[in-house]
Amino acid sequence: MAAGPKEDVFCRIWRGLERAYVAYKDDRVMVIMDLYPSRGGRPW
User: Which pTM was predicted?
Assistant: First the structure.
């Protein structure tokens, strides 16, 4: 399926068109790390 104008960044990452830090991937699941979160982590 060709990339369309409504394809979001997560679809592009799954297809290998965008770079991301992939922590885990199999044929159904992909776990990516947010390198630039809008909020900091937990305060504890």
Answer: 0.61
Dist CA 30 CA 16 (whole Å): 12
If phi > 0 it is left, if psi is from -120 to 50 it is alpha, else beta; for residue 41 that is beta
Within the chain, which residues score under 50 in pLDDT?
Answer: none
Measured between alpha carbons, how far is 21 from 43 in angstroms, rounded to an integer?
Answer: 24
SS3 (DSSP) at 36:
coil
Q: Do 26 and 32 contact (CB within 8 A), yes or no? A: no
Residue closest to 34 by CA, chosen among 15, 10, 17:
10
